């Protein structure tokens, strides 16, 4: 069966520090991968998605970036965090074509 | 533009009572439809999905949803709510012919509280 992992589970970082969140998927090949941010009371915001290694599409301009160095690895990064980057970050995967997405456990990021 | 509306931000029901969470969508064609549940501090779990066929779909944890094309709705129901159902619920739509990307559009969620 497929499993999706995210780490770290929680993170507290000062403003201006770098960020690296990692997501890995097991038990499937060539998945679509997604990064979402969930701010308090604001639903899910799609940040990035990827249909293959090195292929990243950005949904929202911001100081975050994403990379996919391996088929089942998706990384969310920032060079300098802002207070507004605080939130709950969710990684998800799906098969190619129409269908559901499966979510990881999330990372709670607090920028102080 | 494609959109999903969950009119109820917060609902409180008594344990054992029936539940209906509303979802309306705006889409150019018949979409794929989903309901997800999120417990505090956790990821989203898929409750059920509608692709085609019978418009009443059964999901996990005793939930069901009915697709009504004429009303552009996909409401979630449960006949008897348990305290463990307290969570946030998200409706989502996806394109049938969205190509490889398979992006979903999510509603803003309905927070369910269950009274003893």
Question: Would you mind describing this structure in some detail?
Answer:
The complex is a heterodimer of chains A (112) and B (116). Chain A is mostly beta strands and 112 residues long. Chain A has strands at 3-7, 10-13, 19-26, 32-38, 44-52, 55-58, 64-70, 73-78, 87-94, 102-103, 107-111. In chain A, strands 2, 4, 5, 6, 9, 10 and 11 form a seven-stranded mixed beta sheet that branches. Chain A has a four-stranded antiparallel beta sheet with strand order 1-3-8-7, with no helix packed on it. Chain B has 116 residues and is mostly beta strands. Chain B contains no helices and twelve strands. In chain B, the strands form three sheets. In chain B, strands 2, 5, 6, 10, 11 and 12 form a six-stranded mixed beta sheet that branches. Chain B has a four-stranded antiparallel beta sheet with strand order 3-9-8-7, with no helix packed on it. In chain B, strands 1-4 form a two-stranded antiparallel sheet. Chain B is globular. The mean pLDDT of chain B is 92. At the A-B interface, strand 5, strand 9 and strand 10 of A face strand 5 and strand 6 of B.
């Amino acid at each position: 069966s497929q499993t999706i992992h995210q780490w770290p589970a929680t993170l507290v970082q000062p403003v201006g520090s770098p960020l690296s969140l990692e997501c890995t998927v097991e038990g499937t090949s060539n998945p679509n991968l997604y990064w979402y941010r969930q701010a308090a009371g604001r639903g899910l915001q799609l940040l990035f998605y990827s249909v293959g290694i090195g292929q990243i599409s950005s949904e929202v301009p911001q100081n975050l970036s994403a990379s996919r160095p391996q088929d089942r690895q998706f990384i969310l990064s920032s060079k300098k965090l802002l207070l507004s980057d605080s939130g709950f970050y969710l990684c998800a995967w799906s098969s190619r074509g129409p269908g559901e997405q499966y979510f990881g456990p999330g990372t709670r990021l607090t920028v102080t | 533009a494609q959109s999903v509306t969950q009119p109820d931000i917060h609902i409180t029901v008594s344990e054992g009572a029936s539940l209906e969470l509303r979802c309306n969508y705006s889409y150019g064609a018949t979409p794929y439809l989903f309901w997800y549940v999120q417990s505090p501090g956790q990821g989203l779990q898929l409750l059920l999905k509608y692709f085609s066929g019978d418009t009443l779909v059964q999901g996990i944890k005793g939930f069901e949803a009915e697709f009504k094309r004429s009303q552009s709705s996909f409401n979630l129901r449960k006949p008897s709510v348990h305290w463990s159902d307290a969570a946030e619920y998200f409706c989502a739509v996806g394109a049938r012919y969205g190509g490889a990307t398979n992006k979903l559009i999510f509603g803003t969620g309905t927070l369910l509280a269950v009274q003893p």
